[in-house]
Amino acid sequence: MHGALSPAADALASEVPPAPQRHQSYLRVVFGRFLRQPIPVIAAVILLAIILAAVGADLVAPHDPFQTRVSRRLAAIGTSDRLLGGDELGRDVLTRLIYGGRISLTMAIVPVAIGLFIGGFLGILAGYAGGRVNMAIMRAMDVFYAFPSILLAVAIAGALGPGLVNGILALSLVFIPPIARMAESVTTQVRGYEYVVAARLSGASTVRILREHVLSNVAGPILVFSSSQVSVSIIAASGLSFLGLGVSPPLADWGLMLSALRQSIYVNPWVAALPGAMIFITSMSFNLVSDGVRKSMEVRR
Amino acid sequence: MSLQLSRPAPLRQIEDRGGPAQPLLIAKGLRKWFRLSGGLFGRAATVVRAVDDFDLEVKKGETVGIVGESGCGKSTAARLISGITPADEGEVVLDGESFFAPRSRISREQRRAVQMVFQDSASSLNPRMTITETIAFGPRAHGVSRAEARDYALDLLAGVGLPPSRFGERYPVALSGGQRQRVNIARAIAMRPRLLVLDEPVSALDKSVEAQVLNLLVRMREELGLSYVFISHDLNVVRYISDRVIVMYLGQIVEQADAGDLFATPRHPYTRALFASKPSLDPRHRVQVAPLVGDPPDPVNPPSGCRFRTRCPIAEPLCAAAKPPLDIIPGSGDGHRAACWAAIPGSGHSLSANAGVLQ
């Protein structure tokens, strides 16, 4: 039976046709697939425009966001120096929407980022350790699940008092549990894979296994899930501002603007609807983009 | 290491301590029960008896095959032997030194002596690492520098028949099943182990590739002086590669013997049924009736006495009353053991008197 041994290695070379020498990196493959989906690309462009406008508000905005003008109170859309109308104090709505994006986007993205770090860490720890550690962490997370997320944010923000920082803090606490749960479930799955078992058999330390084998395989799904949570966060953040638990006037914020313009909805419904439209468009875009990324990351065999 | 490497391996050979007479691995009384649910508030806990009272001895240079149908505890046994799943009870001794005991840690240096090769599947290799990185990971964990580990990995790829210039930078998705299995083998031997536990290493491969991988395994065993524990449900494969074979049923060993002896004169009715279910190429030996009917019993509530009695053609009341010991069967080859009352002389089973001429 030993005579048959040597041809084995040579025969192998013909098993599969030669593949290109260097393989495209994973990120480039994902990016290429993303570009081939029209709707997520459009959403990404809209999102990018909103973010850029918010960041460069000082350059883009046509007016001073705090400059009131009695003659332009509740001006209609298309008025000469109030392109998207004027608010209840005659300030330029377009300018305030652009400046409002700063606070609204901050209050949407920062809590999810904090939730991603803390929730991701807790979830990966729970998933990889398993057993009692998992039980302790995940049952603690379940306590937060007992409350509807918006209600929880309102309750925490109410207890802490209004303000940007408190709003962010309240929302962060809301986003830790779902992200932890997501991270836990993918890590538990990856932990059982043979390549992780093989890594453990080699005697590598847990930290090394987590860093080199686990993290790269769970990061994708966790990131995609977190980015989809941004759309939830925008709505929750606007809700807090709407209730007066976010930033205080005269600062601009989409939720706050919606709350103030709501009273003039019978006078000038189109202007009143604009902050709501911004919230809707941004939230929708985040959702579509993260959906597109998720689809591009699916492993095809 | 006589495997042709272009430079010396960065991990040192684990030296032999016990001499040739000392078995490489002795596993004694390994037991693993998995708790399913309950047990907290007075409800009885549901326990799956995956592996019960498992003994194994692997001599230096020997290949021990483990066969049995799906769900009989073969894979759990493999993970207990390698210490990756801690056994509830029992111990594993490696070359005279304690390797695994409950509630004790296996040191990093000891750990590398026993490596596993898994069935080829989507999850046997990290999809985010090139195969070079995958092989280099273990040596790096043992303090080998990144560059040195990489060179070593490329050498090993060549050693298992994958030209590194063509395959080194590939990701697992760009490999065929047989090629992935070669990478799995290279990853295991990179640690310079003494024992390889192969858990269904060729079961997912098609026949022509299976033969190549088996030949590679045989070559490695000779060149590197390895011992194997080879798990498979394919009797032909086990017969080809094994010196000794263990037959498992429902978490327990029912028969063990030298490969030739076992295939020539199986003593346990389960082993015979297993062999009879192997399709024959000879039409005169065509099987008319399926030798084993139905699924194995629930491992949560295994039958009393002999666990095979519910499907056994020669079961008698004695078999339900007492569990047969895994005894040496007189009149068979060296070390042939079977756990069957009918094979043990003077047991009281109606067939036991002429146990020597059974079959």
TrEMBL record, chain A:
Gene3D superfamilies assigned to the protein according to its UniProt record, in alphabetical order: MetI-like
Alphabetized Pfam families for the sequence: BPD_transp_1 (PF00528), OppC_N (PF12911)
Membrane topology note: Multi-pass membrane protein
Alphabetized InterPro entries for the sequence: BP-dependent_transpt_permease, MetI-like, MetI-like_sf, OppC_N
Keywords noted in UniProt: Cell membrane, Membrane, Transmembrane, Transmembrane helix, Transport
Cellular compartments annotated: Cell membrane
Transmembrane region(s): 39-61, 105-130, 150-176, 218-245, 265-289
Main localisation: membrane
Family of this protein: Belongs to the binding-protein-dependent transport system permease family.
Name the UniProt record assigns to this protein: ABC transporter permease
Native source species: Terrihabitans rhizophilus
From TrEMBL, chain B:
Membrane topology type: Peripheral membrane protein
Chief site of localization: membrane
Pfam families: ABC_tran, oligo_HPY
Reaction equations catalysed: glutathione(out) + ATP + H2O = glutathione(in) + ADP + phosphate + H(+)
Subcellular location: Cell inner membrane
Coiled coil segments of this chain: none
GO molecular function (one): ATP binding
CDD domains the record matches: ABC_NikE_OppD_transporters
E.C. number: 7.4.2.10
Keyword set, alphabetical order: ATP-binding, Cell inner membrane, Cell membrane, Hydrolase, Membrane, Nucleotide-binding, Repeat, Translocase, Transport
SMART domains: AAA
Residue span(s) of domain ABC transporter: 34-275
Its job: Part of the ABC transporter complex GsiABCD involved in glutathione import. Responsible for energy coupling to the transport system.
Family in the record: Belongs to the ABC transporter superfamily. Glutathione importer (TC 3.A.1.5.11) family.
SUBUNIT field: The complex is composed of two ATP-binding proteins (GsiA), two transmembrane proteins (GsiC and GsiD) and a solute-binding protein (GsiB).
PANTHER family: GLUTATHIONE IMPORT ATP-BINDING PROTEIN GSIA, TRANSPORT ATP-BINDING PROTEIN
The protein's name: Glutathione import ATP-binding protein GsiA
Organism for this UniProt entry: Terrihabitans rhizophilus
Top-level taxonomy: Bacteria, Pseudomonadati, Pseudomonadota, Alphaproteobacteria, Hyphomicrobiales
